[in-house]
Amino acid sequence: MNTLKGKTAIVTGSSSGIGEAIAILFAKEGAKVIITYHSGPDRAEAVVEQIKKDGGVAKAYQLDVSNSDDVHQFFDKVDKDFGDITILVNNAGINGSNTPVEDMSIEQFDKVVKTNLYGPFFCSREFLHLKKKYKTYKGSRIINVTSIHQYVNVPGNADYNASKSGMRNFAYTMALELASREMTVNNIAPGMILTPINEKVIDDPKKLERAESIIPFHRGGKPEEVANVALFLASDASSYVTGSTYTVDGALSILGPDA
C-alpha cells in the first residue's frame, strides 16, 4: 500500500475497462487520480465515487484527446486544480474500422489515428510543458497503453495497427529524449482483455470460446492484470526501466497473426 503516496496521476479514458482498473489501483496505492472520459459522465463519476468511498482522491474531467485545443484547456484546468502531475497514463483509445485499406475512407483512418496516436502526442506534449513549468522531470512517468497490434497485425485494421505501432515508436523516441532527466516512458501492450472495447467477442459465447481457445492461457485477461503492470511502471521500483514494452496477453502474440 501507498506505493504512489504523494503522486498525482492522469489516466485518460478511465471511466471503464483498463483505464478504470488503473485509476482505482493507483488511488488505492495513495495517488491522487484524474479521471477523463469522452462521453458518459455518469460512468466517470461512479469511478470517482468508488475511489472516494475507499478513502482516495479523484476528480473527473471530460476530454477529447484527439482535439489539441481540448487537451490544452484540460491541462490548464488540471494545473489550477492539482498543480504538478507525476504520472501520465495515455490509455484512451478506440477500435479500428474493420475495413480493408482499399475501401477505407480518410475519415475512418483519421478518426482512429487522431484518437490513438495524436491523442498521446497532445497529452504527452502538454504534460511535458507542465514538467518544465514545475522543473520536476526526475521520477515522472509516461505510460502508454498500446496493444499487441503494435507488432501483431491483422487484416482489415490498418488504421488501428498503424496507430498502435506509431505509439510504440513515439514512446521509444520520448524515452531517449527524456532519459538524461531520469523521466521514464514505457508501453503496456495488452492482448484480449475482457473490457467493453471487446464487447462483440465477450457478448457472443461462441466467439469468446474460440478467442480464448487460441490464447495459450485459454482465457481473456482481466483489466486488473494490466493495472498491476501499470502500477510497477508508475512506481519507484521501475526507476531504471524506460523505452520498453510490457506485453500482457497470456502469450497470444508469440503465436503471431495467423493464430
Question: Helices and strands in order, then pairings?
Answer:
Blueprint: E1 8-11, H1 17-28, E2 32-37, H2 41-53, E3 57-62, H3 68-82, E4 87-90, H4 106-134, E5 141-145, H5 158-178, E6 184-190, H6 199-202, H7 205-214, H8 223-234, E7 245-248, H9 252-255
Parallel strand pairs: 1-2, 1-4, 2-3, 4-5, 5-6, 6-7
Task: Write a brief structural summary.
The chain is α/β, with parallel strands linked by helices and 259 residues long. It has nine helices and seven strands. It is 46% helix and 14% strand.
Give an overview of the whole structure.
With 259 residues, the chain is an alpha/beta fold. It has nine helices and seven strands, in the order βαβαβαβαβαβαααβα. It has helices spanning 17-28, 41-53, 68-82, 106-134, 158-178, 199-202, 205-214, 223-234, 252-255, and strands spanning 8-11, 32-37, 57-62, 87-90, 141-145, 184-190, 245-248. A seven-stranded parallel sheet has the order 3-2-1-4-5-6-7, sandwiched between helices. The termini are far apart.
